[in-house]
Design a protein that fits this description.
With about 375 residues, this protein is an alpha/beta fold. It has 14 helices and 16 strands. It folds into two domains: about 270 residues, Alpha-Beta Barrel (TIM Barrel); about 90 residues, no CATH class. Strands 4-5-6-10-11-12-13-14 form an eight-stranded parallel β-barrel, surrounded by four helices. The protein has a three-stranded antiparallel beta sheet with strand order 1-2-3. Strand 10, helix 7 and strand 11 form a beta-alpha-beta unit. Helix 12 crosses helix 13. It binds one RNA strand of 74 nucleotides through helix 5 and helix 11.
Length: about 375
RNA sequence: GUGGGUAUGGCGCAGUUGGCUAGCGCGCCAGAUUGUGGCUCUGGAGGCCGAGGGUUCGAGUCCCUCUAUCCACC
């Protein structure tokens, strides 16, 4: 159950009630694709850096260790020792990102495993079964995420198929939630809006899936190559046609600036690999823009990544030391950067929630963006 | 001391019977990365080819001397 606590313009401050605790929105979900946030980050770390929700991936966990193994181990929560909400992505994105290794048909998608090359079939039913085995808090619908440059003639039939897949997902999820040996019988299902950068297709699709009474609605297929302006335009056009009494999730986005823009347009949920992947590559976020700690200018910099930051890295360690660890390819260097970045994102979301509650989101956003564009 | 090998950007090497604007890997310096294959990709800086002399229209490539270094033998 989702409720909007207060609004500030189109920005919403809300709360999603789940069997694994309540999620305060807007929220940034921390991405742990294979039931682990890359960079040697533990559950204890996540508590320290204020993680509300973890995101894992259906396709990756199906390939390894196998969803049946996870079910046998008591489900994802018990397996990875995390009792707060988990959202599982459906594997739909892998249809897109592993393009070349797949064949899309009406019944579903034929993949070759990126781990051992074996053939895998996944359709809406399989994706729901896997996610039910994983017993995540929120399951995502199985969709196709077409490339940003796709023509309308490709997008329209693709979106129509995604709609048919969504109906199958919903039916299968209902069936699974009523089964005796299902671990999480209250597993939620979010539908996914597609339509490329065509507002008419987006809106039509949003209307159709809104009638299906799902637990939440995502906007997918953005931030895959189109410009920021196009992305914001599509968000702005689509959000009003998604149910306002349900959470809206912008999949895979994005930079801190992207998130501020999307919150302003009514988005509640986010996830992105940036803080973790960029962290592993030594790119760290600050209120004065992104730093690349590999840069030679940090060689003797005794300052923390960001002074005043309360993350585990900034509380004690210098940029120079972390740079050294990164150059030496020590895991600890990546770990510090990932922890800092996730803390930065989680903390920014906390600030956003406070700003909306106090009806000063616009001022907050402007000040934040000005900071990002200033030199540290 | 004798015989043989090797000397090319920070390191490791390619450079065909002499025609180069001297390449490559790593490293270095930067930049990309948006529902993650601890990747990958894209740029950039840096060498009078150990030193000196010779042959030639032309030498990193051939010849001579020297220096350094490695291996074997004494």
């Amino acid at each position: 159950m989702y409720k909007v606590i207060t609004t500030d313009g189109n920005a919403k401050r809300g709360e999603l009630v789940t069997p694994h605790g309540n999620i305060q929105t807007p929220v940034f979900m921390n991405v742990g694709t294979v039931a682990a946030i890359k960079g040697a980050v533990s559950t204890e770390d996540l508590q320290t850096i204020g993680t509300q929700v973890q995101l894992s991936n259906t396709y990756h966990l199906h390939v390894r260790p196998g969803d049946k193994i996870v079910k046998q181990m008591g489900g994802l929560h018990k397996f990875m020792v995390w009792d707060k909400p988990i959202l599982t992505d459906s594997g739909g994105f892998q249809v897109f990102s592993l393009a070349g290794l797949r064949k899309i048909k009406e019944e579903g998608v034929y993949f070759s495993s990126h781990v051992d090359g074996r053939k895998i079939f996944m359709g809406p039913e399989e994706s729901m079964q896997i996610q039910s085995n994983l017993a995540s808090t929120i399951a995502m619908a199985f969709d196709e995420c077409p490339p940003s440059k796709a023509e309308k003639s490709y997008i329209q039939p693709s979106v129509d198929r995604t709609t048919r897949w969504l109906e199958r997902c919903k039916n299968e999820m209902n069936r699974l939630n009523s089964m005796e040996d299902t671990i999480n019988k209250k597993q939620m299902l979010f539908g996914i809006n597609q339509g490329g950068i065509f507002e008419d297709i987006r809106i039509e699709h949003a209307k159709r899936i809104s009638e299906m009474d799902l637990d939440g609605y995502a906007i997918g297929g953005l931030a895959v190559g189109e410009s920021h302006d196009e992305m914001y335009r599509i968000i702005e056009a689509t959000v009003p046609y998604l149910p306002q009494n349900k959470p809206t999730y912008l999949m895979g986005v994005g930079t801190p600036a992207n998130i501020l823009e999307a919150v302003e347009r009514g988005v509640d949920f986010f996830d992105c690999v940036y803080p973790s992947r960029n962290g592993r590559h030594g790119h760290v976020y600050t209120n004065h823009g992104k730093l690349n700690l590999f840069n030679a200018k940090y060689e003797t910099d005794s300052e923390p990544i960001e002074s005043g930051c309360k993350c585990p890295a900034c509380s004690k360690y210098s940029r120079a030391y972390i740079r050294h660890l990164l150059k030496a390819k020590e895991m600890l260097g990546m770990r510090f950067c990932v922890l800092h970045n996730l803390y930065f994102y989680n903390n920014m979301m906390d600030e956003i929630r406070t700003a909306i509650s106090e009806h000063r989101f616009a001022e907050y956003k402007k000040a934040k963006l000005d900071g990002f564009n200033s030199e540290a």
